[in-house]
Specification:
107 residues, 4 helices, three-stranded antiparallel sheet, 35% helix, alpha+beta
Amino acid sequence: MIASIVLSTVEVGSTLRDLTNEVSEKLGPKDAQIFIERCIGILGCALEFADGLKFDPEASIGSLAFIDGISVPRPESAPGVISMNWLASLSEVAHETMNLESAIKRF
């Protein structure tokens, strides 16, 4: 499963580091480390560098969606290709929305 959330930016609010810390506290140590490493990989920098971006957690949480990883569009690999990076739009992918409490209970 892939979790997706749209962060509604504001002048004063939570940071991405606040969000990742909150999620990490709900995970076991190994899963928390994997989660943080993936966030850093997606950002391409340490979480501290994103502290200038503030978002409204209440407005953003309504966009939380869970997507089956197999449903994410991906390019075809060709012989000899060792590694690929791509961006995929998730707007047309079937997903399940739920509030954070439901997600925590489920996963």
